[in-house]
Design brief:
About 40% of the residues lie in helices and about 15% in strands. By secondary structure, it is of the alpha/beta class.
Length: about 240
């Protein structure tokens, strides 16, 4: 059976939210394998840039400390993997961050059936809960100085609706709300129009968050998982 591999930066929050969207949209499908990279985008870049021919799947198997214990991952061959999706935080305060690296990674990982497709949370996974209503969310920003983990985690919990704090409590309608909010905001960033058009080009989102190669400050908050769902299902996501 062909497998789809989902690669997360972190172990806990990302998996909790992904398990929630699985229950809402993938409950009748099999073949998904969830893997944690346990490091950030810029470490992945360091590893990949050292060898342009290095396959991300083989790299993750090599670096992942649980690969030897997870029988599904340990025994899985690259030719058994049909799609790879990667989910990472922007991490703007990482000492290795640069706009060039961000764009390089998004251009490299732009096809799930080849190297993989990368989705970025701006500034981090907690962007998914930093929302109350769509109109407010379209204008929601975060200063770069507040993008550090402890600061933004607290801020997003304080100003976001409690419904989205606990991933297990988000039902399919909650996910559809998050998808609409984030798709409209992605379009607003790219084109200035908040239409409900699917954004398949993740580089376009990153380019809109940059100016002259540096991040805009404040930065627009945007969540990766809702953008992924729209990319994966298209507008049918609102009818599933």
């Amino acid at each position: 059976m062909e497998r789809t591999v989902f690669v997360f930066e972190g172990e806990k929050a990302e998996r909790n939210y992904f398990k929630s969207l699985e229950r809402a949209f993938f409950s009748d499908e099999e073949g998904r394998l969830l893997v944690t990279f346990q490091n950030d985008l810029y470490e992945l870049y360091t590893q990949i840039s050292a060898d342009e021919d290095l396959d991300v799947f083989e790299l993750i198997k090599e670096l992942n400390p649980i690969a030897s214990k997870d029988e599904d991952l340990k025994n899985l061959r690259r030719d058994q993997v049909g799609q790879i999706y990667l989910f990472f935080d922007l991490e703007p305060n990482d000492q290795n961050f640069s706009g060039r690296i961000l764009l390089d990674m998004l251009r490299r990982f732009n096809n799930e059936t080849e190297h993989g497709k990368l989705f970025i949370s701006y500034p981090m996974i907690e962007a998914i809960r930093d929302i109350n209503d769509i109109d407010e969310y379209l204008e929601r920003v975060i200063h770069l100085s507040d993008c550090r983990g402890a600061v933004y985690k607290k801020l997003s919990a304080q100003r976001g609706n409690h419904i989205y704090q606990d991933a297990k409590k988000i039902d399919i309608q909650g996910w559809r709300f998050l998808i609409e909010a984030n798709v409209r905001k992605a379009n607003l960033l790219i084109s200035g129009n908040n239409n409900l058009n699917i954004v398949n080009n993740q580089s376009a989102i990153a380019e809109a968050q940059l100016k002259n190669g540096a991040l805009r400050d404040p930065l627009s908050v945007l969540s990766a998982f809702p953008i992924f769902l729209a990319d994966y299902f298209g507008l049918d996501v609102f009818q599933k």
